[in-house]
Amino acid sequence: MRVAFTVNGERHEADVWEGESLLYVLRERLALPGSKNACEQGECGSCSVFLDGTLVCSCLVLGAQADGHEVVTVEGLASGDDLHPVQQAFVDAGAVQCGFCTPGLVVAAADLIERSPSPSDDEIREALSGNLCRCTGYQKIFDAVRAAASA
Ligand code: FES
Ligand code: FES
User: Distance between CA 77 and CA 44 in Å, rounded?
Assistant: First the structure.
């Protein structure tokens, strides 16, 4: 089926199989590899995107369900060469090791700060509880989110 939707402010159309995920459509049909495929079953958060402003795991959303809707991926958070404050904070804090979890964490943290500009540590923990990182031990990720919020 043919779907048409907006991704990072640009209109896109794609031919998709009814059973393929939004994550697959973004990565394989629209050449947007920022959202990562780590588990493909809603467990790790590495595929997180905004769908009409709501944080979702794009591996759990069908590409067909995005028809007529608006998607923002980690690529869409930056403004040209200017990183989103959360992206910049992750770089500055050294919160990236292999980087596989990073796009999902950045999107989830951006969502948190949008909803709660000065989040408590418990709010940060809860907001990032759906995002798994195998490398960092989370401390630098927390530092980055705190820094982004105070920026
Ligand atoms: S790839 Fe979607 S939650 Fe892990
Ligand atoms: S930096 Fe490697 S999984 Fe998080």
Answer: 20
- In sequence order, what are the residues at sequence separation of 6 or more whose Cβ sits closer than 8 angstroms to the Cβ of residue 147? 89, 92, 93
Using a 6 Å cutoff on CB, does residue 141 contact ligand 2?
A: no
Evaluate whether 112 touches 145 at the Cβ level (below 8 Å).
Answer: yes
* Helix 139-150 / helix 85-93 crossing angle, nearest 10 deg: 140
Q: Characterize 12-37 residue by residue with b for buried, 16 or more Cβ atoms within 10 angstroms of its Cβ, and e for exposed.
A: bebebeeeebbbbbbbbbbebebbbb
The Å distance, Cα 24 to ligand 2 centre, comes to: 21
8 within ligand 1 shell (Cβ under 6 A): no
Strand partners, 70: 6
pLDDT digits (tens, 9 = 90+) for 118-150: 999 999 999 999 999 999 999 999 999 999 999
Q: What is the pTM of this model?
A: 0.96
